[in-house]
Amino acid sequence: MDFSGTSFTHALLNRIIIAHDYRLGEAIFDGADFVDSVNFSNVTFMDRASFAHAKFREDVSFAGADFGQTRDLGPMYCRVSANFTNATFHSPVLMQIAARHVFLMGARWESTAIMRFRYAHVDLERAAPQQPIAVTAALLPFSGDPLAEKQLIFGTDPVPALPKLISISGVDASQLAITDFNLSECVFTGAFHLDQISLEGDNVFSRSPGGVHWNGFIPFRYTPRRVLAEEHYWRSDRRAVSSNAALWRSNPTDVSVANMGPQHVGADYRQLRKALEEAKNEPDAADFYYGEMEMRRIDTLRPPAERLIITAYWAVSGYGLRATRALLALIVAMFSATLLLVSFGLPMEAPLQEVRGTKAGGYVIDMPDAKLEAPFSARYTPKRVGEAMKITLNSFVFREAEQTLTPAGVYVGMASRVVGPLLIALFLLCLRGRIKR
At what angle do helices 323-340 and 382-396 cross, to 10 degrees? Predict the structure, then answer.
């Protein structure tokens, strides 16, 4: 049956489908114009279906449809939505759809598929690809008149730059290759083999809240990084326990996030980090490692000692990813060691040796502990500060200080010889990560 260029109403299409008992052979709807909502639900295309440049001026439903030997579906244009829930594709297929919404929940592909979308919010929840499928943004218009294409779908409404993926929960992610999509609202929790997903091109993730914020009278800022939608939703739901929850985006979809605690979100970050590392995508992998560590740091079910260590790691180096923070921590540690040495560890004068006799007629030479008894106002001189800085630098590279110190100064030097090299190593680690990215 060839309906190329035909104008269809809902009633006319229903009469044709019912007359053929929901079983159509080769059905060609190229250039057809569907003037209102139409329904191909549960239709079986025994040969192939063709909808090249078909226009759906409302929504269209292919829910439960069987596309038989269809290898090219579209390009089609839908003003509202295209629903392929529980549809089945038996042959390798190229799908090209420009729409506001495309629903593919529970759809099944028994062979490979390439799906190219424009503008659409795409929902793949519980989809069942049996072979690899590519979900790609079509950056160029399907028709020769891009203005007419946008006018048909959006009218005067704003046009999104990229199609947006809403959910891949319940999908075998090892069969997915996603390219150039907006993933800022995508729910990854519940996907299988998430560490084997392929993320190619310029996929856009959500970002942490930018700018400087206030917690009472204390200013703070979040580290700029790519974040998953699940972290936004989980942090936003903590309004009862966190005054900063309003900075994070609440869930705009109907996807449940009640069970997405830091354990679930951290697992998503860990698996996506592994997938990106294997694809040599170091920048995004580094941000996901940061997110994984953040979830570990704020997970109240982890041992307090572990959280304390992770918090210190975060504070001094941003989990080994923030070179500026590590350098600042190194400078603060050196300044603190210098200040302590000048205040308590560096004597005004070296102690004199004491010689005392013994009962056997010999003598013993003693070196008393160095003392610092001068008033504080006399301790802070350029000469003493210079000596303290020299001792600090020597200590930070594991060299023994030659200067005589008070007992307090000895302990400051010992701490410096431990903390200094550790902070230097963290700074070099951060620097290596920055250069690698």
Answer: 130
Residue 346 main-chain phi, psi, to 5 deg: -110, 110
Distance CA 394, CA 92 (A): 68
Host H or E run for residue 95? strand 93-103
Q: What is the DSSP string of 206-229?
A: EEPPPS-EEETTEEE-PPP-EE-H
Q: How far from each other are the two terminal CA atoms of the chain, in whole angstroms? A: 56
> What is d(CA 92, CA 53) in angstroms, rounded to the nearest whole number?
20
Distance in angstroms (rounded) separating the CA atoms of residues 134 and 244: 38
Cis-peptide, bond into residue 75, ω within 30° of zero: yes
The encoded tokens of residue 131 equal: 């072979």
Q: Per-10-residue mean pLDDT for the chain, 437 residues long? A: 92 93 93 94 93 93 94 91 95 94 96 94 95 93 77 79 91 95 92 94 90 76 88 78 72 58 90 91 87 92 92 91 89 90 78 62 62 73 85 75 74 86 88 73
Instruction: Return the SS3 of 30.
Output: coil
Q: Coil, helix or strand for 435?
A: helix
Amino acid present at 264? H
Report the distance separating Cα 105 and Cα 63, nearest Å: 9
DSSP state of 55: E
- What's the confidence (pLDDT) of residue 254? 52
Judged by DSSP in three states, 304 sits in: helix
CB-neighbour burial class of residue 240 (10 A; exposed 0-12, middle 13-18, buried 19+): exposed
What does DSSP say about strands 213-215 and 218-220: parallel, antiparallel, or unpaired? antiparallel
pLDDT for 179 equals 94
Q: Tokens 């596309």 identify what position?
A: 67
Q: Using an 8 Å Cβ cutoff, are 421 and 392 in contact?
A: no
- Rounded to whole angstroms, the Cα distance separating 424 from 344 reads 25
Q: If DSSP codes are grouped into helix, strand and coil, which group holds residue 124?
A: coil
The answer to whether the beta carbons of residues 198 and 279 sit under 8 Å apart is: yes
Q: Are 290 and 222 in contact (CB under 8 A)?
A: no
**What pLDDT was estimated at residue 236?**
82
Q: Model pTM?
A: 0.82
Q: Looking at this protein, which amino acid is placed at residue 420?
A: G
Which is nearest to 401 in space by CA: 370, 430, 356? 370
Residue (of 207, 186, 87) closest to 135 by Cα position: 186
